[in-house]
């Protein structure tokens, strides 16, 4: 973490405020991570009670987002952060939104579990379960990279999103072929599509967080750039 | 986005400036007080019609550096200077340099307003009277123009012949700036011009600095980093007599290249 490799601020209170802010985002991310783990359990066991709990808990994540925003604004107003500090606070403002949206996507998947007439396809269910776990790992790795402000890890995760996209596409093709055989529960299939889309979106959000993290540490913008880490992708391909 | 590309928001990079854009060129400037080396081979180009801030901790050589620009350091007996400061194509340390003329060209305003204990009017025309100018109409014009430029005219126009000491501190500081402007300098150096002022007077001076930029080259020394960030186009960071980093203010305050700069502006242990 660049902030850590540098010496601390002379103001101990400012150090504490920034540290607390980061910890709050990590705690919020931790809840989203747990929410997804619970959702996957609910999906595997068809446990509607757990899925209901996930939907209720999302309100907690929403409250945290508002609190973190408020704290960012307070720090900007009172501390006038600049340079690395400013980049960190701006990054947290952005990451905060992404984590909250990830919570919404998890809620969407939980809502699918609550649907009465879901398709019976075991292949789809297993595919969703596996992709869900890939995403769970991705969230965990992203939060870990953010906690350590680890740019290399962020770049690797950024690349990994392509795997999620591939899985999503494969499952999508499977869904399109299977849904014709069980066309009578079309609304159920739509819920499956929504949930799949939600998983893919969580991967994108993790990618966004990694981009902000790189910006925070290195001050370089890697957003909206095709293949921003050319060398790294070549290495991982070999 | 065109709206964000406006010159209001961005200034050219220092290395892209042409010679004609430069007001002061400093080449390998080293300064000693006796045996003590206070400035270490400083080289920098200060752009014309822009605001350049000089920041750094106390004792880093900021005031000494700006003191070189109008040869104020000549007043120290044991001061020795190496290198060049070029203003208007001439090295100002050349023995043929006319120092009073240089000080007319390079005006200076200090931390505490120091109006003379005479009227507002006489304060403004003080420098002109010394130059032997006594034409009343000309002096009246200069007073009005200088006070307008210093954003003080509306507040004092009815009391021009009252003592300057009756003005508030913020007004006094603007009066001192008007006094410097009356001599039509090319370069105006402000050494912590607002450190003794309240926030509103500070904003008035900052707004004034913004307006002055179109006619003068402004150099401001400040301990208030937010002020440097607000008013300047370029910022130089000095530490222990060395120029650590000098760049456009956007870069210094968002992505400084040097760790030392980052530590200083973000308030970390260096």
Description:
The complex is a heterodimer of chains A (238) and B (270). Chain A has helices spanning 2-5, 12-45, 48-79, 83-114, 122-148, 151-179, 186-218, 230-237. Chain A has a single domain (2-223), classed as Up-down Bundle (Methane Monooxygenase Hydroxylase, Chain G, domain 1). Chain A is mostly helical. Chain A is built from 8 helices and no strands. With 270 residues, chain B is an alpha/beta fold. Chain B has one domain (2-265): P-loop containing nucleotide triphosphate hydrolases (Rossmann fold). Chain B has helices at 62-69, 99-105, 120-130, 136-149, 153-156, 169-181, 199-212, 225-231, 249-254, 259-265; strands at residues 22-33, 36-47, 51-55, 79-87, 90-91, 106-109, 187-191, 217-221, 234-239, 242-248. Chain B has a 6-stranded mixed beta sheet with strand order 6-7-8-3-9-10, with helices on both faces. In chain B, α3 runs parallel beside α6 and α4 crosses α6 (169-181). At the A-B interface, α4 of A face α8 and α10 of B.
In short:
The complex is a heterodimer of chains A (238) and B (270). Chain A is mainly alpha-helical and 238 residues long. Chain A is 84% helix and 0% strand.
Question: What key attributes describe this structure?
Answer:
heterodimer; A: 238 residues; mainly alpha; Methane Monooxygenase Hydroxylase, Chain G, domain 1; 8 helices; B: alpha/beta; Rossmann fold; 6-stranded mixed beta sheet; 4-stranded antiparallel beta sheet; 10 helices; globular
